[in-house]
Amino acid sequence: MPVINVEDLTDKDKAVMEVNQLKLEVKLERWLTSKCCEEIKDYIQALVEEDILVKGISEEKNPFKEKGGCVIC
Questions:
Q1: Max alpha carbon distance in the chain (Å)?
Q2: Given pLDDT bands bounded at 50, 70 and 90, which one contains residue 13?
Q3: I need a labelling partner for 5 at 20 to 30 A (CA). Which of 12, 25, 51, 55 fits?
Q4: Where is the G protein gamma domain (predicted)?
């Protein structure tokens, strides 16, 4: 899709683009925020055991663990 410079469009062209965008948005299915939050919470809680950010990386699987220490005398 080509890039459109909005500054070069006439007011009519801008209005047509806005109406087309609103027509697309009105067709979207709306969900209650409370329902979405519940589903996200349930999803997170169901996968918490597999979540690396919560559980951490085991030492044997961590590719960034230090191989050995550095001693400065």
A1: 76
A2: very high
A3: 25
A4: 5-73
Token pair belonging to 50: 């597999």
| For residue 37, pLDDT beyond 80 | yes
Task: Quote the CA–CA distance of 12 and 24 in Å, as a whole number.
Answer: 19
- Dig out the tokens for 10 from the structure: 């006439």
Q: Give the CATH fold of the 11-56 domain.
A: G Protein Gi Gamma 2 (4.10.260)
Percent of all residues in the chain with a pLDDT value above 70, rounded to a whole number = 96
CA pseudo-torsion sign 41, 48, 51, 67: positive
* Residue boundaries of the structural domains of the chain: 11-56
Through-space distance between the first and last CA atoms of the chain, rounded to whole angstroms = 63
Q: What is the pTM of this model?
A: 0.44
Average pLDDT over residues 19-48: 94
